[in-house]
Design a protein that fits this description.
Helix content: under 10%
Number of strands: 18
Radius of gyration: 18 Å
Number of helices: 1
Low-confidence stretches: 1-17
């Protein structure tokens, strides 16, 4: 008899990774994230934030069975909307090789660009109702901005695995269809938080 599915509880201040074992394909691998800030003047003391959303977690397989399943290239595209002078969603986790569309749903021009190592690009100016796209062909974090509207920012995290998820406001993450095996777990808090 297999042991029950592991639920992982993490207290995250910044980037981290560890090795976890996952058993039984159903239900999904679940995690609970708590985002905390350090209390000024009190070393070692932290205070939990109310919003624990947009923490990315991805699992890289360490055994051959899971590696062969993870090697598949995604066949669908994802969207990062420009709407109401904001990117929606603010954080997007995609498998390496995914095409990300940037539709402009605002009634004015936008320009999407990234100067970061995950994927460098500049889509130029484009008008309302149009869309441009970028293929995120290598792993890394790419921060997106609009050079017309300085308040616009987002992050696309490209990972070499289909086993990924983002936390909701309460810090919950569920990653579906994770096969049995050992995984290296990566965590990134790429959200733009005011602390």
């Amino acid at each position: 008899m297999r042991p029950p599915r592991i639920s992982i509880i993490l207290r995250i201040l910044f980037y981290g990774c560890c090795v976890v074992s996952i058993w039984a394909q159903q239900p999904p691998a679940t995690m609970q994230i708590e985002v905390a800030k350090r209390v000024a003047g009190n070393p070692g003391t932290t205070s939990a934030l109310e919003d624990a959303s947009n923490v990315a977690v991805w699992l890289n397989p360490l055994n051959h069975a899971a590696v062969s399943l993870a090697a598949s290239v995604p066949g669908h595209s994802r969207q990062l909307l420009q709407w109401n002078k904001a990117f929606v969603p603010r954080v997007l986790v995609v498998q390496t090789g995914t095409l990300v569309e940037f539709p402009n749903k605002d009634p004015f021009l936008h320009n999407v660009f990234s100067l970061f190592n995950g994927k460098r690009f500049d889509l130029g100016f484009y008008e309302a109702g149009s869309s441009k796209s970028v293929r995120f062909d290598r792993p890394g974090v790419s921060f997106q901005f609009c050079n017309i509207h300085e308040e616009m920012s987002a992050a696309v995290i490209a990972v070499d695995t289909p086993y990924s998820g983002l936390s909701d406001r309460a810090g919950r993450i569920a990653i579906p269809n994770v096969p049995d095996g050992r995984y290296q777990m990566h965590v990134s808090n790429a959200a733009f938080r005011k602390i």
